[in-house]
Each structure stands twice: as C-alpha cells, then as structure tokens.
Amino acid sequence: MNICVFLSAADLDERYTTPARDFATRLGKAGHTLVWGGSDTGLMKVVADGVEEAGGRLVGVSVDFLAAKARSRADEMVITKDLAERKAQLLAKSDAIVVMVGGTGTLDEATEILELKKHGKHTKPVVLLNTAGFYDGLKSQFRRMEEEGFLPLPLTDLVFFAEDGAAALTYLKEAVGARG
What we know:
Strand order of the largest sheet: 4-3-2-1-5-6-7
Largest sheet: 7 strands, parallel
Distance between the termini: 12 Å
Radius of gyration: 15 Å
Helix content: 40-55%
Order of helices and strands: EHEHEEHEHEHHEH
C-alpha cells in the first residue's frame, strides 16, 4: 500500500518524534511505501529514516522552492512547480492518507484532502494521527460541524482519528481491503 503522510518538516520534541518513528517502522516492516513531502529535515526525516531502515520504499513529492531540502536517496522524487501540484501528486500516488502533527502547511493539506473526499473526488481512507492529543481541538471542531449540519456525510465516513500508529495502520489495512 502507498501511504501518503502529511507532517511537519520542523525539528520537534520526543513526544512527537518517538511515536512518529514507531509509526514509520511499522509502515516499513509491513512492506508499505511512504509517499511524503520529500523533505530530509525535521519530522519528515524522522519518518523517512524509519521507513527506510525498516525496509519500506520512499516516494517523495517536493516543490521547486524546497527542492534543496529534498531527500537525495529516496526511491523516487518528484519536484513540482507549486504547492497545489504537489498536493495533487501526493494524492495521486497514494492509496491512503495519514495526517501527522504539523503546522499550517499540514493543516492546509489535511483540509484540502478532506474537502475533496467530502465532494467524492476520492474515496481513499484518511487518518488523523492524534499524537499526544495534538488534534483534540480539531476533532472537537469536526464533531461540532457534524452535529450542526455542516458535513454532508458522517464524520466517520470522512476521517478516522487514531491515537497511535498501530491503530492507524490497522484501520488503513481494513479500509483499503474493504475498497477492493
């Protein structure tokens, strides 16, 4: 399975890097391919290192203004002209999406992918990996959106909130298997 992971390229505290490395190791050991923003810095590097060390493949999709930070030893690296093309390529190259901790770029990627799913532009499973309760506020906001009629489909059809990497991968395996 090709799993797109949206996440931060910042250097982060162990409360984020340790669970990220665990998820990456699980992903690689299971024989999956990481599809990610291609950066060789921060949390993106932690995850790419973990997948690579566990035997998984790396497919990076960077953008021209960040190409200098792209991982040189990825199995495949695509450089796009802008962020919109980058997001489209990440979605096209993946079977499932996991959103890990991140800043405004990660939030932009997450909301766009959910908006496309809401409108039926893709049916790929989406997981928000809620490391250290990072997405508790967003989860509450999504529940409010659902309760007050802002979502045209049940929240559970849109996104799955996982508390750890094991739960995320179990859900994806079941969800992708159910899609055929």
